[in-house]
Amino acid sequence: ETMINQIAAGEVIERPASVAKELVENALDAGASRVEVATGGGGLSLVRVVDDGAGIPAGELALAVSRHCTSKLSTDIHDIRSLGFRGEALPSIGSVSRLAIRSRTADADAAAEISVEGGDVSAIRPAAANRGTSVEVRDLFFATPARLKFMKGERAESSAITDVVKRIAIAFPAVRFTLSGTDRSTLDLPANEASPHGQLARIAQVMGSDFPDNAIAVDAGRDGVGLTGYISIPSYNRANALQQYAYVNGRPVRDKLIAGAIRGAYADVLPRDRHAVTVLFLALDPALVDVNVHPAKSDVRFRDPGLVRGLIVGALRQALAAAGI
Ligand code: ADP
Ligand code: MG
């Protein structure tokens, strides 16, 4: 069982940022309004996520760390509203690290705690905590030393964690996120109202307060696919890394098709070595997109890639033209 989980971990947990992603997604699935992420050593010595969500009943803690146990089962794979649905993350993480989960539901008198060390699951112990869940992952890959060798430096791993938190935070503007670490990567994103205004406020918190003044709103649709968001004017010059955020039905995705469509839309107005800064939300019938391609779940496959590409290129060109660009 530990062996199977370690193999699964190879798929789901590539690096500390994968741990951060899985734990933050679990917190959001639990309806948290506050998600606190703490890291140490680029996430290799510590990733801890504390939330104020629904919590895990003491009687279900052992299930939460067993393979393919998910409390989020939906009958229709295309109608997945939660971010997680495979029941793979916690057992995978527990098989390659020292994992400790402490949780308390609203109606429980006390919290309970379970730990897993390199796949060995402890008994359930009583603990003291407020409502919500704290998941602590120490010494990632201590049980699989070969994996450790693939890690980049602490700084690279830290910035991958920061990127994961920012990416998810844009999709949940009403949730407060904090990120703290032993390095300089800290974030504090206060909660915003759940409205288009709050959405833009969150985007400004993540992208920089000068972004909204240098951005054009996009709002388009075609054949049942909706596209909203903000794109930078060509003169908006960000020297730092690529800042392109894309979401499909509220789920953060990384997708070559979307990146290529953005490049195409800006081809005439931006030099080849510069990138537009963009936040784009695609909304489409869940049957027309497969988010189930890879366990790490940031890939997507569109039923009609041409339609999506055409919509993005057309909508962005039109938005730029309407702004006189
Ligand atoms: P999945 O998210 O795919 O269900 P995970 O392995 O990530 O699988 O989590 C297993 C289960 O543990 C979840 O289905 C959920 O019931 C519970 N769980 C994990 N993290 C939390 C959390 N932060 N708050 C409440 N429940 C949680
Ligand atoms: Mg999960």
Automatic annotation (TrEMBL):
Residues 203-321 form the DNA mismatch repair protein S5 domain. Keywords: DNA damage, DNA repair, Endonuclease, Hydrolase, Nuclease. One of its GO terms (molecular function) is endonuclease activity. Belongs to the DNA mismatch repair MutL/HexB family. This protein is involved in the repair of mismatches in DNA. It is required for dam-dependent methyl-directed DNA mismatch repair. May act as a 'molecular matchmaker', a protein that promotes the formation of a stable complex between two or more DNA-binding proteins in an ATP-dependent manner without itself being part of a final effector complex. This is DNA mismatch repair protein MutL. It comes from Mesorhizobium marinum.
